[in-house]
Design brief:
Pfam families: Sel1 (PF08238). By secondary structure, the protein is mostly helical. It is built from ten helices and no strands.
Amino acid sequence: MKLTQWLKKLLGIDKPDKLPRRDFLTAVEAEDTATVLGILKTESERGNPEAMAALAALYSTGRGGVEQSDAEAALWYRQAAVRGYVDAQALLGLALATGGGVEPNPEEAAYWLYLAATAGHEAALEWLADLVFQAPDVIGKHFSSTDLAKLLKAKGINEMRKHSARMRPPDES
């Protein structure tokens, strides 16, 4: 997928209710990486969470002429996450769970993944279920096991059984 298409999809530019800055759209269409990055950085510094998430994604993937950096990606995902950008909350949670560019922190990872999952981010719910089975002590810090079970049930997912079977060591008896 060309950078132009990828950025349009990432930022929702292809949706009629999203009207980006004209100079940004022109730069994306022209694949003018320097201008695109400049605008994303300017918009990020102004507090635009979508621009922050796009910048994080560029750093995460190394696309658009940006040097790949998990640490820089995590920094921008965090900035977007605290501003309520759900995809960034999920990706920050994943980074914290796996140590992608940040020191692993299962408790904080669980917080961001739970927040994103309650906002409807399905991958975050799956990542959270995986995290809970790897580090069950994260339950109770930001949510209860009942909260998680209700969320899984509301999504029609019986992930707990699937994940517990996958994560449990084989019986040695």
